[in-house]
Design a protein that fits this description.
The radius of gyration is 19 Å and the shape is globular. The protein has one domain. The two termini are about 25 Å apart. With about 290 residues, the chain is an all-alpha fold. It has 13 helices and no strands. It is about 75% helix and about 0% strand. Helix 2 packs antiparallel against helix 9, helix 4 runs antiparallel to helix 8 and helix 5 runs parallel beside helix 8. It is found in: Cell membrane.
């Protein structure tokens, strides 16, 4: 790929990362307006799914969906569903940067899932990335006075589990070579919408929908359109850029999120948090240099 042709997918990933860096804020506004994260996730991804169904209706053929890789498509939907709901609940109930840093342990989980599901062998660099990621996570999660590093909050749990599910989703998407990008995208959107709906029923928050004002619905519609746009950007970028390089470009989200969290919520990280986060980000950077046999 020439430099000019490579510029567009790189720009797509950078734009997507920048938007994701502030996409958490509308969800917090909806939470303040009386809509729980489970329901806002359900409705936002349902709107994005509706857009996708309209635009990609020609790809919705039973013969193309129910092929030998249909089981993988199902697991893509399931893992993507948890990724979406965990991300939203994490950034609503936790500290934005801590949640995102734990989410960006994804390269660690990607290496492990690739070994299990794709039989990709690790180089020495791969093992170094695992150790660096784990060391950063331990430092980030260490609490004064405790003997073991612990997840400090519900948001931390969501960030960690969401990153694990995100890594699994990416590996499954790479493993599934029998479905087109459009069907995989619809699987991601439908899985998140259904997972959010199940969580909404579990939390009995479906009644929140009757108490919303017009401006909340406008925010929700905007999020739905934005989610679809972001999925297109990231799918395009990751189709043309190797996954281990794409994760490095996506680290730009952390920069944008740090600035946004400071000015929008007055959140800040401790020195220990910054040190652990730097180790995690460095592991992601080094993941671009992993060579697998």
């Amino acid at each position: 790929m020439t430099k000019q042709k490579k510029l567009l997918p790189v720009a797509s990933l950078l734009l997507g990362a920048a938007i994701w860096g502030v996409a958490w804020y509308p969800y917090r506004l909806l939470e303040q307006a009386g809509m729980r994260g489970e329901l806002s996730t359900t409705l936002a991804y349902s709107i994005a799914l509706l857009i996708g169904l309209i635009l990609f209706r020609r790809q919705l053929r039973i013969s193309e969906i129910l092929n030998p890789a249909a089981g993988i498509l199902f697991w893509i939907s399931l893992s993507a569903g948890w990724t979406g709901i965990a991300y939203v609940l994490g950034i609503i109930h936790g500290e934005v940067m801590r949640v995102l840093l734990l989410f960006y342990l994804a390269p660690l989980w990607t290496i492990l899932f690739s070994r299990i599901l794709l039989q990709e062998r690790l180089s020495r660099q791969g093992y170094a990335i695992i150790l660096l990621s784990l060391a950063g996570a331990l430092l980030l999660l260490w609490q004064p006075g405790s003997k073991l590093p612990l997840l400090a909050s519900y948001g931390d749990w969501m960030g960690l589990s969401g990153g694990l599910a995100f890594a699994l989703t990416n590996v499954l998407i790479r493993k599934d070579q029998q479905h087109g990008i459009q069907l995989k995208l619809l699987a991601v959107l439908s899985g998140t919408a259904l997972t959010g709906f199940a969580a909404t029923l579990l939390m009995e928050s479906i009644s929140d929908i009757t108490h919303l004002h017009t401006h909340a619905w406008l925010i929700l519609a905007g999020i739905g359109g934005l989610v679809f746009f972001l999925c297109i950007l990231l799918q395009y970028g990751m189709t043309h850029i190797p996954a281990n390089q794409a994760i490095v470009i996506m680290l730009f989200e952390l920069v944008v999120a740090a600035i946004a969290a400071h000015f929008l919520t007055n959140e800040y990280l401790t020195g220990r948090d910054w040190a652990g986060g730097l180790m995690i980000a460095s592991a992601s950077l080094f993941s671009a240099r992993v060579n697998r046999d």
